[in-house]
Amino acid sequence: MAASGRGLSRGIGASSCPAWRGAHWEARGRLKPEYDAVVIGAGHNGLVAAAYLQRLGVNTAVFERRPMIGGAAVTEEIIPGFKFSRASYLLSLLRPQIYTDLELKKHGLRLHLRNPYSFTPMLEEGTGNKVPRSLLLGTDMAENQKQIAQFSRRDAQAFPKYEAFMNRLALAIDPLLDAAPVDAEAFQRGSLLQRLKSLSTLKPLLQAGRVLGAQLPQYYQVLTAPITKVLDQWFESEPLKATLATDAVIGAMTSPHTPGSGYVLLHHVMGGLEGMQGAWGYVQGGMGALSDAITSSATAHGASVFTEKAVAKVQVSSEGCVQGVVLQDGSEVRSKVVLSNASPQVTFLKLTPQEWLPEEFVDRISRLDTQSPVTKINVAVDRLPDFLAAPNAPGGQPLPHHQCSIHLNCEDTLLLHRAFEDAMDGLPSHRPMIELCIPSSLDSTLAPPGCHVVSLFTQYTPYTLAGGKVWDEQERNAYADKVFDCIEAYAPGFKGSVVGRDILTPPDLERIFGLPGGNIFHCAMTLDQLYFARPVPLHSSYRCPLRGLYLCGSGAHPGGGVMGAAGRNAAHVVFRDLKSM
Q1: Cα(282)–Cα(446) distance, rounded to whole angstroms?
Q2: Hey, what CATH topology would domain 37-91+285-369+522-579 get?
Q3: Per-domain boundaries in the chain
Q4: What's the pLDDT score for residue 195?
Q5: What protein family does this chain belong to (predicted)?
Q6: Residue of 79, 87, 549 lying closest to 342 (CA atoms)
Q7: Three-state SS letters, 22-46
Q8: Residue 26: what pLDDT?
Q9: Per-residue pLDDT reduced to its tens digit, 389-436
Protein backbone atom coordinates (compact mmCIF):
# COMPACT_ATOMS: atom_id res chain seq x y z
CA MET A 1 0.00 0.00 0.00
CA ALA A 2 1.39 3.41 -0.89
CA ALA A 3 1.89 6.08 1.72
CA SER A 4 1.08 8.66 -0.89
CA GLY A 5 0.90 8.77 -4.65
CA ARG A 6 4.27 7.04 -4.86
CA GLY A 7 7.00 5.38 -2.87
CA LEU A 8 7.33 2.57 -0.37
CA SER A 9 5.01 2.15 2.59
CA ARG A 10 5.57 -0.53 5.18
CA GLY A 11 4.65 -1.49 8.70
CA ILE A 12 7.38 -3.27 10.60
CA GLY A 13 7.00 -7.01 10.81
CA ALA A 14 5.25 -7.52 7.47
CA SER A 15 6.72 -10.43 5.54
CA SER A 16 6.43 -8.56 2.24
CA CYS A 17 8.87 -5.89 3.42
CA PRO A 18 12.60 -5.88 2.78
CA ALA A 19 14.68 -6.26 5.92
CA TRP A 20 16.01 -3.08 7.48
CA ARG A 21 19.71 -2.45 7.30
CA GLY A 22 21.01 -1.56 10.75
CA ALA A 23 24.47 -0.97 12.13
CA HIS A 24 25.41 -4.32 13.66
CA TRP A 25 27.77 -4.01 16.58
CA GLU A 26 30.91 -6.11 16.59
CA ALA A 27 31.31 -7.81 19.97
CA ARG A 28 33.97 -6.22 22.14
CA GLY A 29 35.86 -8.88 24.10
CA ARG A 30 35.98 -12.67 24.12
CA LEU A 31 33.28 -14.46 26.07
CA LYS A 32 34.63 -15.77 29.35
CA PRO A 33 32.97 -18.25 31.72
CA GLU A 34 32.97 -15.79 34.63
CA TYR A 35 32.78 -12.06 35.36
CA ASP A 36 32.31 -9.96 38.46
CA ALA A 37 29.10 -8.47 37.05
CA VAL A 38 26.74 -9.27 34.19
CA VAL A 39 24.38 -6.69 32.68
CA ILE A 40 21.28 -7.91 30.84
CA GLY A 41 20.53 -5.64 27.90
CA ALA A 42 22.69 -3.05 26.11
CA GLY A 43 20.22 -0.20 26.35
CA HIS A 44 21.76 3.13 27.34
CA ASN A 45 21.20 2.54 31.08
CA GLY A 46 22.80 -0.90 30.95
CA LEU A 47 25.79 0.51 29.05
CA VAL A 48 26.14 3.37 31.56
CA ALA A 49 26.05 0.89 34.46
CA ALA A 50 28.72 -1.27 32.78
CA ALA A 51 30.92 1.75 32.06
CA TYR A 52 30.82 2.90 35.69
CA LEU A 53 31.36 -0.57 37.16
CA GLN A 54 34.32 -1.24 34.87
CA ARG A 55 35.91 2.08 35.83
CA LEU A 56 35.50 1.06 39.47
CA GLY A 57 37.44 -2.14 38.80
CA VAL A 58 34.44 -4.49 38.49
CA ASN A 59 34.97 -6.81 35.51
CA THR A 60 31.69 -6.48 33.62
CA ALA A 61 30.01 -8.09 30.60
CA VAL A 62 26.88 -6.88 28.81
CA PHE A 63 24.61 -9.27 26.89
CA GLU A 64 22.21 -7.90 24.26
CA ARG A 65 19.64 -10.01 22.38
CA ARG A 66 19.47 -7.73 19.30
CA PRO A 67 22.25 -7.49 16.69
CA MET A 68 22.95 -3.90 17.77
CA ILE A 69 23.52 -2.03 20.99
CA GLY A 70 21.48 0.85 22.38
CA GLY A 71 18.05 -0.57 23.22
CA ALA A 72 15.67 2.21 22.19
CA ALA A 73 18.60 4.61 21.59
CA VAL A 74 19.61 3.23 18.18
CA THR A 75 20.26 4.43 14.66
CA GLU A 76 18.93 2.17 11.91
CA GLU A 77 19.06 2.54 8.14
CA ILE A 78 15.55 1.22 7.59
CA ILE A 79 15.24 2.73 4.11
CA PRO A 80 18.43 2.72 2.00
CA GLY A 81 20.31 6.00 2.44
CA PHE A 82 18.14 7.22 5.35
CA LYS A 83 19.35 6.79 8.94
CA PHE A 84 16.67 6.95 11.62
CA SER A 85 16.73 7.31 15.37
CA ARG A 86 14.17 4.57 15.25
CA ALA A 87 12.72 4.82 18.76
CA SER A 88 14.08 7.60 21.03
CA TYR A 89 14.96 10.63 18.95
CA LEU A 90 15.94 13.64 21.13
CA LEU A 91 18.51 14.23 23.86
CA SER A 92 18.28 16.46 26.92
CA LEU A 93 17.88 14.43 30.09
CA LEU A 94 21.25 12.61 30.07
CA ARG A 95 22.87 13.51 33.38
CA PRO A 96 25.76 16.00 33.08
CA GLN A 97 28.01 13.86 35.31
CA ILE A 98 27.75 11.03 32.78
CA TYR A 99 29.05 13.26 29.96
CA THR A 100 32.03 14.15 32.12
CA ASP A 101 32.75 10.88 33.94
CA LEU A 102 32.53 8.72 30.81
CA GLU A 103 34.31 11.30 28.60
CA LEU A 104 31.64 10.97 25.94
CA LYS A 105 32.99 13.77 23.76
CA LYS A 106 36.35 12.02 23.67
CA HIS A 107 34.51 8.89 22.55
CA GLY A 108 32.86 10.65 19.61
CA LEU A 109 29.61 12.17 20.91
CA ARG A 110 28.59 15.27 18.95
CA LEU A 111 25.41 17.25 19.55
CA HIS A 112 23.27 19.69 17.59
CA LEU A 113 21.47 22.04 19.98
CA ARG A 114 18.14 23.37 18.81
CA ASN A 115 17.20 27.03 18.97
CA PRO A 116 14.35 27.68 18.47
CA TYR A 117 13.04 24.43 19.88
CA SER A 118 9.22 24.49 19.61
CA PHE A 119 6.94 25.32 16.67
CA THR A 120 3.13 25.09 16.78
CA PRO A 121 1.46 26.04 13.48
CA MET A 122 -2.25 26.85 13.36
CA LEU A 123 -4.73 25.80 10.68
CA GLU A 124 -7.08 28.82 11.11
CA GLU A 125 -9.27 28.01 8.13
CA GLY A 126 -11.89 30.64 7.43
CA THR A 127 -10.37 33.25 9.75
CA GLY A 128 -9.34 35.62 6.98
CA ASN A 129 -5.64 35.27 7.78
CA LYS A 130 -3.71 34.82 4.53
CA VAL A 131 -0.91 33.11 6.44
CA PRO A 132 -2.04 31.12 9.47
CA ARG A 133 -0.45 32.12 12.75
CA SER A 134 2.14 29.98 14.54
CA LEU A 135 3.90 29.91 17.88
CA LEU A 136 7.70 29.69 17.77
CA LEU A 137 9.59 29.36 21.08
CA GLY A 138 13.33 29.41 21.73
CA THR A 139 15.92 30.68 24.19
CA ASP A 140 15.33 34.39 23.47
CA MET A 141 12.72 35.44 26.06
CA ALA A 142 11.92 38.75 24.37
CA GLU A 143 11.24 36.94 21.09
CA ASN A 144 9.13 34.35 22.93
CA GLN A 145 7.02 37.13 24.43
CA LYS A 146 6.57 38.66 20.99
CA GLN A 147 5.37 35.32 19.64
CA ILE A 148 2.98 34.72 22.56
CA ALA A 149 1.56 38.24 22.29
CA GLN A 150 -0.02 37.24 18.96
CA PHE A 151 -2.46 35.24 21.07
CA SER A 152 -2.44 37.09 24.42
CA ARG A 153 -0.47 40.07 25.71
CA ARG A 154 -1.30 38.99 29.25
CA ASP A 155 0.26 35.57 28.61
CA ALA A 156 3.34 37.21 27.10
CA GLN A 157 3.88 39.11 30.37
CA ALA A 158 3.28 36.00 32.49
CA PHE A 159 5.58 33.66 30.54
CA PRO A 160 8.93 34.72 32.10
CA LYS A 161 7.46 34.27 35.59
CA TYR A 162 6.12 30.84 34.65
CA GLU A 163 9.53 29.78 33.30
CA ALA A 164 11.25 30.96 36.50
CA PHE A 165 8.65 29.09 38.60
CA MET A 166 9.17 25.82 36.71
CA ASN A 167 12.95 26.18 36.64
CA ARG A 168 13.01 26.51 40.42
CA LEU A 169 11.04 23.28 40.78
CA ALA A 170 13.36 21.51 38.34
CA LEU A 171 16.35 22.79 40.34
CA ALA A 172 14.86 21.41 43.56
CA ILE A 173 14.13 17.97 42.14
CA ASP A 174 17.38 17.66 40.20
CA PRO A 175 19.47 16.19 43.11
CA LEU A 176 16.85 13.47 43.65
CA LEU A 177 17.70 12.05 40.22
CA ASP A 178 21.30 11.28 41.11
CA ALA A 179 20.84 9.15 44.21
CA ALA A 180 18.95 6.04 45.20
CA PRO A 181 15.63 6.79 46.91
CA VAL A 182 15.34 6.39 50.65
CA ASP A 183 15.74 2.66 51.32
CA ALA A 184 12.34 2.11 52.94
CA GLU A 185 12.97 -1.61 53.47
CA ALA A 186 16.23 -1.00 55.35
CA PHE A 187 14.57 1.72 57.40
CA GLN A 188 11.62 -0.53 58.22
CA ARG A 189 13.32 -3.91 58.71
CA GLY A 190 17.08 -3.35 58.87
CA SER A 191 19.52 -3.22 61.72
CA LEU A 192 20.16 0.00 63.64
CA LEU A 193 23.22 0.69 61.46
CA GLN A 194 21.21 0.09 58.27
CA ARG A 195 18.47 2.41 59.52
CA LEU A 196 20.97 5.16 60.25
CA LYS A 197 22.52 4.74 56.78
CA SER A 198 19.08 4.92 55.16
CA LEU A 199 18.41 8.24 56.92
CA SER A 200 21.36 9.78 55.05
CA THR A 201 19.45 9.26 51.79
CA LEU A 202 16.86 11.78 53.03
CA LYS A 203 19.34 14.60 52.37
CA PRO A 204 18.24 15.28 48.74
CA LEU A 205 14.60 15.43 49.87
CA LEU A 206 15.44 17.94 52.59
CA GLN A 207 17.47 19.99 50.10
CA ALA A 208 14.49 20.06 47.74
CA GLY A 209 12.24 21.34 50.52
CA ARG A 210 14.69 24.14 51.33
CA VAL A 211 14.88 25.25 47.68
CA LEU A 212 11.09 25.39 47.34
CA GLY A 213 10.58 27.11 50.69
CA ALA A 214 7.24 28.82 51.31
CA GLN A 215 6.05 28.04 47.78
CA LEU A 216 6.00 24.30 48.50
CA PRO A 217 2.15 24.11 48.39
CA GLN A 218 2.08 25.63 44.89
CA TYR A 219 4.77 23.24 43.71
CA TYR A 220 2.94 20.31 45.28
CA GLN A 221 -0.02 21.20 43.08
CA VAL A 222 2.16 21.06 39.95
CA LEU A 223 3.10 17.47 40.82
CA THR A 224 -0.40 16.29 41.70
CA ALA A 225 -2.94 18.35 39.73
CA PRO A 226 -4.01 18.03 36.09
CA ILE A 227 -1.66 20.10 33.94
CA THR A 228 -4.67 22.02 32.59
CA LYS A 229 -5.43 23.28 36.10
CA VAL A 230 -1.83 24.41 36.53
CA LEU A 231 -1.64 26.12 33.14
CA ASP A 232 -5.06 27.79 33.52
CA GLN A 233 -3.69 29.63 36.57
CA TRP A 234 -0.94 31.11 34.43
CA PHE A 235 -2.32 31.58 30.91
CA GLU A 236 -5.47 32.21 28.87
CA SER A 237 -4.45 31.43 25.27
CA GLU A 238 -5.07 27.85 24.14
CA PRO A 239 -2.20 27.56 21.63
CA LEU A 240 0.33 28.31 24.38
CA LYS A 241 -1.36 26.07 26.95
CA ALA A 242 -1.69 23.17 24.49
CA THR A 243 1.93 23.50 23.38
CA LEU A 244 3.15 23.36 26.98
CA ALA A 245 0.70 20.55 27.82
CA THR A 246 2.21 18.26 25.17
CA ASP A 247 5.23 17.74 27.43
CA ALA A 248 2.90 16.71 30.24
CA VAL A 249 1.29 13.88 28.28
CA ILE A 250 3.96 12.79 25.80
CA GLY A 251 4.56 9.07 26.04
CA ALA A 252 1.87 8.75 28.71
CA MET A 253 -1.65 7.33 28.47
CA THR A 254 -3.00 10.40 30.23
CA SER A 255 -5.05 13.42 29.31
CA PRO A 256 -4.09 17.01 30.18
CA HIS A 257 -7.08 16.70 32.54
CA THR A 258 -5.56 13.71 34.38
CA PRO A 259 -4.35 14.43 37.94
CA GLY A 260 -0.57 14.13 38.23
CA SER A 261 0.13 14.93 34.58
CA GLY A 262 2.17 17.91 35.77
CA TYR A 263 5.05 15.65 36.85
CA VAL A 264 5.63 14.31 33.34
CA LEU A 265 5.85 17.93 32.16
CA LEU A 266 8.52 18.53 34.78
CA HIS A 267 10.34 15.35 33.73
CA HIS A 268 10.69 16.84 30.25
CA VAL A 269 11.84 20.33 31.31
CA MET A 270 14.45 19.37 33.90
CA GLY A 271 17.13 18.43 31.40
CA GLY A 272 19.79 20.45 29.63
CA LEU A 273 22.68 20.23 27.19
CA GLU A 274 26.17 21.71 27.40
CA GLY A 275 25.24 23.91 30.36
CA MET A 276 21.96 25.20 28.89
CA GLN A 277 19.07 24.30 31.19
CA GLY A 278 16.05 22.87 29.42
CA ALA A 279 17.85 22.56 26.07
CA TRP A 280 17.07 19.64 23.75
CA GLY A 281 19.15 18.54 20.79
CA TYR A 282 19.89 15.96 18.13
CA VAL A 283 22.80 13.54 18.34
CA GLN A 284 25.10 13.67 15.31
CA GLY A 285 24.55 10.38 13.48
CA GLY A 286 21.34 9.62 15.37
CA MET A 287 20.71 8.30 18.88
CA GLY A 288 22.77 5.19 18.17
CA ALA A 289 25.86 7.40 18.20
CA LEU A 290 25.21 8.13 21.88
CA SER A 291 25.06 4.40 22.64
CA ASP A 292 28.26 3.91 20.63
CA ALA A 293 30.04 6.59 22.67
CA ILE A 294 28.97 5.04 26.00
CA THR A 295 30.05 1.59 24.76
CA SER A 296 33.37 2.95 23.58
CA SER A 297 33.96 4.44 27.03
CA ALA A 298 33.06 1.14 28.71
CA THR A 299 35.15 -1.10 26.46
CA ALA A 300 38.14 1.27 26.62
CA HIS A 301 38.37 0.36 30.31
CA GLY A 302 37.92 -3.37 29.71
CA ALA A 303 34.18 -4.03 29.70
CA SER A 304 32.89 -6.69 27.29
CA VAL A 305 29.77 -6.10 25.19
CA PHE A 306 28.10 -8.92 23.25
CA THR A 307 25.23 -8.68 20.77
CA GLU A 308 22.91 -11.50 19.65
CA LYS A 309 23.46 -13.08 23.08
CA ALA A 310 20.03 -13.23 24.67
CA VAL A 311 19.82 -14.10 28.35
CA ALA A 312 17.37 -16.95 28.99
CA LYS A 313 17.38 -16.92 32.79
CA VAL A 314 19.11 -15.72 35.93
CA GLN A 315 20.95 -18.49 37.76
CA VAL A 316 20.43 -18.84 41.50
CA SER A 317 22.48 -20.91 43.97
CA SER A 318 20.89 -23.33 46.42
CA GLU A 319 21.52 -20.67 49.11
CA GLY A 320 19.31 -18.18 47.26
CA CYS A 321 22.03 -15.93 45.82
CA VAL A 322 22.50 -14.93 42.20
CA GLN A 323 25.40 -16.76 40.58
CA GLY A 324 25.17 -15.66 36.95
CA VAL A 325 23.01 -16.15 33.86
CA VAL A 326 22.19 -18.79 31.26
CA LEU A 327 22.20 -17.57 27.66
CA GLN A 328 19.66 -18.60 25.03
CA ASP A 329 22.26 -20.86 23.41
CA GLY A 330 22.71 -22.74 26.69
CA SER A 331 26.01 -21.12 27.70
CA GLU A 332 26.41 -20.46 31.40
CA VAL A 333 28.14 -17.29 32.56
CA ARG A 334 28.90 -17.00 36.25
CA SER A 335 28.99 -13.69 38.13
CA LYS A 336 28.73 -12.27 41.63
CA VAL A 337 25.93 -9.89 40.63
CA VAL A 338 23.48 -9.43 37.77
CA LEU A 339 22.08 -6.05 36.72
CA SER A 340 19.02 -6.08 34.49
CA ASN A 341 18.39 -3.26 32.06
CA ALA A 342 15.26 -5.10 30.93
CA SER A 343 11.87 -4.00 32.20
CA PRO A 344 10.74 -5.07 35.68
CA GLN A 345 8.20 -7.40 34.07
CA VAL A 346 10.76 -9.21 31.89
CA THR A 347 13.33 -9.27 34.69
CA PHE A 348 11.15 -10.67 37.44
CA LEU A 349 8.38 -12.51 35.59
CA LYS A 350 10.38 -14.13 32.77
CA LEU A 351 14.10 -14.27 33.58
CA THR A 352 14.09 -14.89 37.35
CA PRO A 353 13.08 -18.29 38.77
CA GLN A 354 9.77 -17.55 40.48
CA GLU A 355 10.45 -19.75 43.51
CA TRP A 356 13.06 -17.21 44.70
CA LEU A 357 10.68 -14.24 44.69
CA PRO A 358 7.91 -13.52 47.26
CA GLU A 359 4.40 -13.94 45.85
CA GLU A 360 3.42 -10.41 46.91
CA PHE A 361 6.39 -8.95 45.03
CA VAL A 362 5.57 -10.93 41.87
CA ASP A 363 1.94 -9.86 42.10
CA ARG A 364 2.88 -6.18 42.38
CA ILE A 365 5.23 -6.42 39.39
CA SER A 366 2.55 -8.16 37.30
CA ARG A 367 0.10 -5.31 38.04
CA LEU A 368 2.37 -2.40 37.04
CA ASP A 369 0.67 0.12 34.78
CA THR A 370 2.39 -0.14 31.40
CA GLN A 371 -0.25 1.49 29.17
CA SER A 372 1.27 3.35 26.25
CA PRO A 373 -0.37 5.70 23.74
CA VAL A 374 2.59 5.87 21.35
CA THR A 375 2.93 4.96 17.71
CA LYS A 376 6.27 6.07 16.29
CA ILE A 377 6.45 6.60 12.54
CA ASN A 378 9.80 7.15 10.82
CA VAL A 379 9.49 8.77 7.41
CA ALA A 380 11.92 9.34 4.54
CA VAL A 381 11.06 12.37 2.38
CA ASP A 382 12.65 13.90 -0.70
CA ARG A 383 12.10 17.51 0.43
CA LEU A 384 11.35 19.52 3.54
CA PRO A 385 7.74 19.89 4.72
CA ASP A 386 6.37 23.24 3.55
CA PHE A 387 4.08 24.62 6.27
CA LEU A 388 1.32 27.08 5.39
CA ALA A 389 2.15 29.00 8.58
CA ALA A 390 5.86 29.26 7.65
CA PRO A 391 6.50 28.75 3.93
CA ASN A 392 9.80 27.26 2.81
CA ALA A 393 12.68 29.30 1.43
CA PRO A 394 12.98 29.35 -2.39
CA GLY A 395 16.08 27.15 -2.31
CA GLY A 396 14.50 24.60 0.00
CA GLN A 397 17.14 24.96 2.70
CA PRO A 398 16.06 24.36 6.33
CA LEU A 399 14.63 27.35 8.18
CA PRO A 400 14.73 27.85 11.98
CA HIS A 401 11.34 26.22 12.58
CA HIS A 402 12.41 23.01 10.81
CA GLN A 403 14.81 22.14 13.65
CA CYS A 404 12.03 22.33 16.26
CA SER A 405 9.65 19.89 17.81
CA ILE A 406 6.72 20.71 15.55
CA HIS A 407 3.38 20.27 17.34
CA LEU A 408 0.42 19.41 15.12
CA ASN A 409 -3.22 19.11 16.24
CA CYS A 410 -2.11 21.04 19.32
CA GLU A 411 -3.99 24.32 18.99
CA ASP A 412 -6.21 23.54 21.97
CA THR A 413 -5.96 21.32 25.07
CA LEU A 414 -9.45 20.05 24.26
CA LEU A 415 -8.04 18.47 21.08
CA LEU A 416 -5.51 16.59 23.19
CA HIS A 417 -8.21 15.41 25.58
CA ARG A 418 -10.45 14.20 22.76
CA ALA A 419 -7.54 12.29 21.24
CA PHE A 420 -7.05 10.60 24.62
CA GLU A 421 -10.75 9.76 24.90
CA ASP A 422 -10.65 7.96 21.53
CA ALA A 423 -7.90 5.66 22.85
CA MET A 424 -9.87 4.98 26.02
CA ASP A 425 -12.60 3.64 23.71
CA GLY A 426 -10.05 1.34 22.04
CA LEU A 427 -9.72 3.51 18.94
CA PRO A 428 -6.70 5.28 17.46
CA SER A 429 -7.21 9.04 17.82
CA HIS A 430 -9.20 10.63 15.02
CA ARG A 431 -6.97 13.72 15.30
CA PRO A 432 -3.76 12.38 16.84
CA MET A 433 -1.36 14.54 18.78
CA ILE A 434 1.73 14.68 16.57
CA GLU A 435 5.26 15.75 17.47
CA LEU A 436 7.16 16.05 14.20
CA CYS A 437 10.96 16.37 14.21
CA ILE A 438 13.38 16.69 11.32
CA PRO A 439 16.86 15.90 12.71
CA SER A 440 18.39 16.09 9.22
CA SER A 441 17.62 19.84 9.27
CA LEU A 442 20.73 20.11 11.47
CA ASP A 443 22.52 16.82 10.71
CA SER A 444 23.06 16.30 6.98
CA THR A 445 24.67 12.87 7.53
CA LEU A 446 21.25 11.25 8.05
CA ALA A 447 19.82 11.50 4.52
CA PRO A 448 20.90 11.88 0.87
CA PRO A 449 21.38 15.46 -0.41
CA GLY A 450 18.10 17.35 -0.55
CA CYS A 451 16.28 14.59 1.32
CA HIS A 452 15.32 14.37 4.99
CA VAL A 453 14.34 12.00 7.78
CA VAL A 454 11.17 12.84 9.69
CA SER A 455 10.32 11.47 13.12
CA LEU A 456 6.62 11.34 14.03
CA PHE A 457 5.91 10.67 17.70
CA THR A 458 2.15 10.24 17.71
CA GLN A 459 -0.56 9.46 20.20
CA TYR A 460 -3.03 8.20 21.23
CA THR A 461 -3.08 4.60 20.01
CA PRO A 462 -4.25 1.81 22.33
CA TYR A 463 -2.28 -1.43 22.63
CA THR A 464 -5.52 -3.42 22.23
CA LEU A 465 -7.98 -2.23 19.60
CA ALA A 466 -11.74 -2.30 20.05
CA GLY A 467 -13.99 -4.73 18.23
CA GLY A 468 -11.49 -7.58 18.19
CA LYS A 469 -9.23 -5.82 15.70
CA VAL A 470 -5.45 -6.30 15.84
CA TRP A 471 -2.55 -4.13 14.75
CA ASP A 472 -2.02 -5.89 11.41
CA GLU A 473 -0.58 -4.30 8.27
CA GLN A 474 -3.96 -2.87 7.29
CA GLU A 475 -4.55 -1.20 10.66
CA ARG A 476 -0.99 0.14 10.80
CA ASN A 477 -1.28 1.72 7.39
CA ALA A 478 -4.77 3.06 8.03
CA TYR A 479 -3.51 4.89 11.11
CA ALA A 480 -0.36 6.16 9.38
CA ASP A 481 -2.49 7.42 6.48
CA LYS A 482 -4.64 9.33 8.99
CA VAL A 483 -1.50 10.91 10.51
CA PHE A 484 -0.24 11.84 7.04
CA ASP A 485 -3.61 13.41 6.19
CA CYS A 486 -3.29 15.57 9.30
CA ILE A 487 0.22 16.69 8.34
CA GLU A 488 -0.97 17.41 4.79
CA ALA A 489 -3.47 19.94 6.17
CA TYR A 490 -0.63 21.91 7.77
CA ALA A 491 1.98 21.26 5.06
CA PRO A 492 0.39 20.56 1.65
CA GLY A 493 2.57 18.33 -0.49
CA PHE A 494 3.91 16.29 2.43
CA LYS A 495 2.31 13.04 1.25
CA GLY A 496 3.79 13.52 -2.20
CA SER A 497 7.30 13.84 -0.72
CA VAL A 498 7.26 10.48 1.08
CA VAL A 499 9.86 7.94 -0.05
CA GLY A 500 9.12 5.34 2.64
CA ARG A 501 7.89 4.85 6.18
CA ASP A 502 8.35 2.60 9.21
CA ILE A 503 5.33 2.23 11.53
CA LEU A 504 5.83 1.14 15.14
CA THR A 505 2.59 0.63 17.11
CA PRO A 506 2.63 -0.22 20.85
CA PRO A 507 2.85 -4.01 20.15
CA ASP A 508 5.74 -3.36 17.72
CA LEU A 509 7.62 -1.28 20.30
CA GLU A 510 7.14 -4.09 22.80
CA ARG A 511 8.28 -6.84 20.43
CA ILE A 512 11.28 -5.08 18.93
CA PHE A 513 12.61 -3.06 21.87
CA GLY A 514 11.22 -5.00 24.85
CA LEU A 515 9.11 -2.05 26.02
CA PRO A 516 6.20 -3.56 27.99
CA GLY A 517 2.93 -2.47 26.43
CA GLY A 518 5.04 -0.26 24.17
CA ASN A 519 5.70 2.04 27.14
CA ILE A 520 8.82 4.13 26.55
CA PHE A 521 9.28 4.49 30.34
CA HIS A 522 8.95 0.68 31.01
CA CYS A 523 6.05 1.54 33.32
CA ALA A 524 3.94 4.65 33.75
CA MET A 525 5.52 7.78 35.27
CA THR A 526 2.61 8.27 37.66
CA LEU A 527 3.06 9.33 41.28
CA ASP A 528 2.17 5.83 42.52
CA GLN A 529 5.05 4.41 40.46
CA LEU A 530 7.78 6.95 41.23
CA TYR A 531 10.61 7.44 43.74
CA PHE A 532 9.87 5.25 46.83
CA ALA A 533 7.49 3.16 44.72
CA ARG A 534 9.51 2.55 41.54
CA PRO A 535 9.07 -0.15 40.48
CA VAL A 536 7.19 -1.16 43.68
CA PRO A 537 7.24 0.01 47.31
CA LEU A 538 10.11 -1.32 49.50
CA HIS A 539 12.15 -2.17 46.41
CA SER A 540 13.10 1.22 44.98
CA SER A 541 16.84 1.12 45.74
CA TYR A 542 17.74 -0.98 42.63
CA ARG A 543 17.90 -4.12 44.81
CA CYS A 544 15.19 -6.78 44.79
CA PRO A 545 14.20 -9.67 47.10
CA LEU A 546 16.77 -11.93 45.41
CA ARG A 547 20.25 -11.16 46.69
CA GLY A 548 22.65 -10.13 43.94
CA LEU A 549 19.99 -9.14 41.38
CA TYR A 550 19.54 -5.44 40.58
CA LEU A 551 17.33 -3.36 38.30
CA CYS A 552 19.18 -0.66 36.34
CA GLY A 553 16.75 0.37 33.58
CA SER A 554 13.90 2.82 33.12
CA GLY A 555 11.66 0.77 35.40
CA ALA A 556 13.87 1.84 38.30
CA HIS A 557 14.24 5.31 39.85
CA PRO A 558 14.18 7.98 38.44
CA GLY A 559 12.36 6.54 35.44
CA GLY A 560 12.38 6.81 31.67
CA GLY A 561 13.91 9.05 29.09
CA VAL A 562 17.48 8.92 27.82
CA MET A 563 18.82 9.97 31.21
CA GLY A 564 21.33 7.30 32.28
CA ALA A 565 20.62 8.05 35.94
CA ALA A 566 19.19 4.61 36.72
CA GLY A 567 22.29 2.93 35.29
CA ARG A 568 24.70 5.24 37.09
CA ASN A 569 22.87 5.05 40.43
CA ALA A 570 22.52 1.27 40.25
CA ALA A 571 26.23 0.85 39.50
CA HIS A 572 27.14 2.76 42.67
CA VAL A 573 24.70 0.70 44.78
CA VAL A 574 26.16 -2.52 43.33
CA PHE A 575 29.72 -1.37 43.96
CA ARG A 576 28.95 -0.62 47.62
CA ASP A 577 27.31 -4.02 48.01
CA LEU A 578 30.24 -5.82 46.37
CA LYS A 579 32.64 -4.18 48.80
CA SER A 580 30.62 -5.53 51.73
CA MET A 581 30.34 -9.10 50.37
Answers
A1: 11
A2: FAD/NAD(P)-binding domain (3.50.50)
A3: 37-91+285-369+522-579, 113-124+133-282, 370-513
A4: 56
A5: Belongs to the carotenoid/retinoid oxidoreductase family.
A6: 549
A7: ECCCCCECCCCCEEEEEEECCEHHH
A8: 52
A9: 999 999 889 999 999 999 999 999 999 999 999 999 999 999 999 999
